[in-house]
């Protein structure tokens, strides 16, 4: 009986570990910003347990500290075998006087991560 319980436990653990809900929230690992002639370019590095089209990091956004959306980068596909990964967004207009931005990320199952990445502009 003990052997059977052990097998059932390990089978359940395997099934649950492959369930996309267990990939967790997307994590913002790093971010950088550079000012250019057409606005600011942001490069954001994300880490997420993408499992495929059913669960993947699908968006990151740049906000002012007051919550005004300045730009968003839609991620068009899963990055199952590319973790962490970096994507950029150019042409972001930063209002005068804003010296810090907040970056938030989202995945297709959990929605917006509770993590906020504060980035001081150079």
How is this structure best described in words?
This protein is mainly β and 122 residues long. Helix content is 13%, strand content 44%. The strands form two sheets. Strands 3, 4, 6, 7 and 8 form a five-stranded antiparallel beta sheet that branches. Strands 1-2-5 form a three-stranded antiparallel beta sheet, with no helix packed on it. A hairpin with a 3-residue loop joins strand 6 (100-107) and strand 7 (111-112). Residues 8-22 have low confidence and may be disordered.
How does the SSE layout of this entry go?
Elements lengths: L1 H16 L9 E10 L2 E9 L9 E7 L5 E6 L10 E8 L7 E8 L3 E2 L4 E4 L2
Antiparallel strand pairs: 1-2, 2-5, 3-4, 3-6, 6-7, 6-8
The number of helical elements comes to: 1
Radius of gyration: 18 Å
Portion in beta strands = 35-45%
- Alpha-carbon distance between the termini? 64 Å
| Helical fraction | 10-25%
Order of helices and strands: HEEEEEEEE
- Give the tally of β-strands: 8
For the biggest sheet, the summary is: 5 strands, antiparallel
- Large-scale geometry: elongated
Query: Uncertain segments of ≥5 residues (pLDDT<50)?
Result: 8-22
Q: For the residues shown, what is the average pLDDT?
A: 85
Structural class: mainly beta
Summarize the structure.
With 122 residues, the protein is mainly beta. Helix content is 13%, strand content 44%.
Which key features would you list for this structure?
122 residues, mainly beta, five-stranded antiparallel sheet, three-stranded antiparallel sheet, 1 helix, 8 strands, 13% helix
């Amino acid at each position: 009986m003990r052997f059977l319980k052990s097998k059932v436990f390990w089978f359940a653990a395997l099934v649950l570990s492959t369930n996309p809900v267990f990939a967790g929230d997307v994590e913002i690992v790093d971010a950088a910003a550079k000012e250019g002639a057409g606005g600011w370019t942001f490069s954001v590095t994300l880490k997420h347990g993408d499992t495929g089209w059913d669960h993947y990091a699908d968006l990151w956004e740049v906000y002012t500290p007051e919550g005004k959306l300045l730009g968003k980068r839609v991620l068009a596909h899963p990055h199952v075998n590319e973790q962490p990964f970096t994507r950029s967004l150019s042409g972001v207009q930063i209002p005068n006087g804003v010296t810090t931005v907040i970056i938030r990320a989202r995945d297709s199952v959990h929605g917006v991560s509770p993590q906020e990445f504060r980035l001081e502009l150079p």
